[in-house]
Amino acid sequence: MTKFNCIIITGASKGIGEGITNALINTGNHLICISRTENKELKEKAIKKKVQLDYIQYDLSYTPDIDKLMTVVFEKIKDKNLDKLILVNNAGVLNPIGPIETCDSDEIQRHISINLIAPMLLTKEFILKSKSFKCEKRILNLSSGAAVNPYFGWSSYCSGKAGLNMMTKCVAMEQQREKYPVKIMALAPGIIETDMQKTIRSTTEEQFPLKKKFVEFKETGKLESTEVSGKKISEVLLGDKFESGSYLDLITL
Ligand SMILES: NC(=O)c1ccc[n+]([C@@H]2O[C@H](COP(=O)([O-])OP(=O)(O)OC[C@H]3O[C@@H](n4cnc5c(N)ncnc54)[C@H](OP(=O)(O)O)[C@@H]3O)[C@@H](O)[C@H]2O)c1
Fold first, then answer.
1. Do strands 182-188 and 247-249 pair parallel, antiparallel, or not at all (unpaired)?
2. What is the pLDDT of residue 80?
3. Cα 114 from Cα 123, distance rounded (Å)
4. 151 is catalytic
């Protein structure tokens, strides 16, 4: 029986998630994409290449139904003969930007729901629901340099990513005693030209004093494309250097 890699990717509709999904539309992979909007091009490409790609539209800021979301996901893979089962916690937001006292309270809560609580609950459900699976199991959390360095105006983003890094280390430690452990790592992709970078460039210097530096990155061609980034990340995902508990920074600047 043919073996499959099943890869669950959040935030597959655009940006880095789209780049990763694009790089993984290959024979032998089954992709399960989660985001609020569907990416029709990815679906069409998958049909052309005869690759199974399922799309689930879900708003990850709504965390109470994440267990149900993962039940739907696991229904799609229950009869598969798996080589690797992978979860990519990629979906993320940057707003609110600005000194914390100027940020909207609901927006701070929504940010932490999407960037930290949702990945934690997805990780929990992934581990629970795949407990008896004997295949290689991996979780990749999309982190950032902001997880390890404070940035003026990014208190939500830095806190969420720092939390994600720490969750990665704790879960890696917990999984060491499991019979069929899940490997988990955090990865900072570098600086990639996506809507998130456009958001950074459109803030005011009062909200984010480092704005000029990010405009300069764009003007001097320092930003990486989502295609190149997606390819690099997909190689880490499927490769044999996936070190549980680690934080890998792919920044090239
Ligand atoms: N770009 C960079 O330079 C950079 C650097 C370091 C780290 N990162 C990290 O890389 C990841 C991807 O960032 P990106 O630059 O590709 O961002 P992006 O272009 O803004 O894309 C964000 C993705 O997340 C999804 N998403 C946002 N809110 C969601 C929600 N409530 N529910 C479900 N999905 C949601 C979006 O899909 P929908 O809008 O369709 O829901 C979209 O697919 C993030 O975790 C980010 O922090 C990016």
1. parallel
2. 80
3. 13
4. no
- Whole-number pLDDT of residue 252: 78
The residues, any chain, with a CB within 8 Å of residue 243's CB and separated by 6 or more, are 183, 185
CA of 93 to the centre of ligand 1 (A): 6
Mean pLDDT in the chain? Answer: 97
User: In angstroms, what CA-CA distances link 228 with 23, 36, 49?
Assistant: 9, 24, 20
Residue at token pair 């990340």? 233
Q: Measured from the CA of 16, which atom of ligand 1 is nearest?
A: 16
Digit-coded pLDDT (tens) for 194-203: 999 999 999 9
DSSP codes of every residue in 129-167: HTTT--SEEEEEEE--GGGTS--TT-HHHHHHHHHHHHH
* 34/93 Cα distance (integer angstroms): 15
With contact defined as beta carbons under 8 Å apart, do 53 and 230 qualify? no
Count of other CB atoms within 10 angstroms of residue 215: 14
Name the pTM for this structure.
0.98
As a three-state string, the secondary structure of 37-72 is CCCHHHHHHHHHCCCCEEEEECCCCCHHHHHHHHHH
How big is the chain, counted in residues?
A: 253
* Structural domains of the chain sorted by starting position, each given as residue range(s) with its CATH number in brackets: 4-190+226-249 (3.40.50.720)
Distances (CA, A) of 58 to 54, 128, 220: 13, 20, 37
Catalytic residue, candidates 55, 58, 62, 157: 157
Q: Which residue minimizes the CA distance to atom 8 of ligand 1?
A: 144
